[in-house]
Design a protein that fits this description.
two-stranded antiparallel sheet, mainly alpha, single chain, 61% helix, 14 helices, binds zinc ion
Length: 314
């Protein structure tokens, strides 16, 4: 019975991993990979690179090197954690939203706002993205500043080459923290809007996902984890994090350490004094530094080393 259950969970995990390229809610959805490829071609043309485009994109090391294989292993392993531990928690988001709404109705009566359903929908669509983005920045900020969390976040930074799947190279502990954060933020924001809109909320969507997320994913989100140096206009990099700015975040140079921690918006980094713009950095080497990279050369080391280091410290 136990083995049967385990096999079921493994089957669901493999199915979940493979579904990433066919789900519009995932960054590596085939359409976003394709739009990123077009943007990469634009960068290639603009940069006057001498090698053929295919060699520029499909470098063996980037897609099949040791670092990339560890990324794929994390996609699979984290899907296992999602099926096993996170999926059962997702319902709590709506539960929490309903409770918040009920609590507010009970204590303050029905909200009698004279806002049109359209303005509430637009506001909800914006709010959920901005609040989520801020929460993700704060979590990331602590991942870098709190030594115990940094040990686990190092796994994401131990990638010595970046490809779109590096997005999923995170330690399971970070995965759980990020998902709990997502459930909490979605629950609270949806609860407040359920109340404000008398339980009639809706979201502006495209392909079933928040339209703002679609725009972000369609316009090159995948290039963040890549060697394609897509930069924005200087003024725009104060508002939105460009792919190259996230690549700077992956630099092993101490000066770039703990900078550009925003996900979509750069304003949080600007406010916290951690923003670096593309024009300030000419060359990047990805990873944690030669010495430390040696501790993360296999999937197993990435999974276990953070615990071992903690145990040593304790
Ligand atoms: Zn980081
Ligand atoms: Zn990253």
């Amino acid at each position: 019975m136990l083995i049967e259950n385990l096999l079921d969970i493994i089957y669901e995990s493999v199915k979940l991993s493979l579904s990433y390229v066919t789900s519009p809610g995932k960054r590596v959805y085939i359409l976003y990979l394709f739009s990123s490829l077009l943007l990469a071609y634009f960068v290639y043309k603009k940069s006057n690179i001498k090698i053929p485009f295919t060699s520029y994109i499909f470098k063996h090391k980037v897609w099949l090197g040791r670092s990339a294989i560890i990324d794929y292993a994390f996609v699979l392993f984290n899907s296992f954690i999602k099926v096993l531990l996170i999926a059962p928690l997702l319902v709590y988001s709506l539960d929490m939203a309903q409770h918040i709404n009920d609590y507010m109705v009970h204590n303050y009566g029905r909200a009698n706002l004279n806002w049109s359903p359209t303005s509430l929908t637009v506001l909800y669509t914006f709010t959920i993205v901005v609040v989520n983005d801020f929460a993700s920045f704060i979590t990331h900020y602590f991942m870098h500043r709190v030594p115990f969390l940094w040990e686990f976040h190092k796994v994401h930074h131990s990638a010595t080459v970046l490809n779109p799947f590096t997005q999923y190279r995170i330690h399971p502990l970070e995965l759980i923290i990020n998902n709990l954060r997502g459930i909490f933020i979605k629950g609270v924001a949806t609860g407040v809007f359920l109340y404000l809109a008398n339980e009639q909320i809706s979201l502006i969507t495209f392909l079933g996902i928040n339209i703002l997320n679609f725009i972000f994913l369609f316009f090159g989100a995948n290039l963040r984890h890549s060697h394609i140096k897509l930069k924005y206009f200087n003024f725009l990099e104060y508002i939105f994090i460009s792919p190259y700015q996230h690549q700077i975040h992956h630099s092993n140079d101490k000066e770039h350490h703990s900078t550009n921690m925003g996900s979509r918006l750069a304003i949080w980094d600007y406010l916290f004094g951690t923003l670096i713009r593309s024009k300030e950095v000419k060359k990047i080497t990805f990873g944690l530094g030669k010495q430390e990279d040696r501790s993360f050369t296999t999937f197993w080391k990435n999974l276990v080393n953070p615990f071992l280091r903690l145990a040593k410290v304790v």
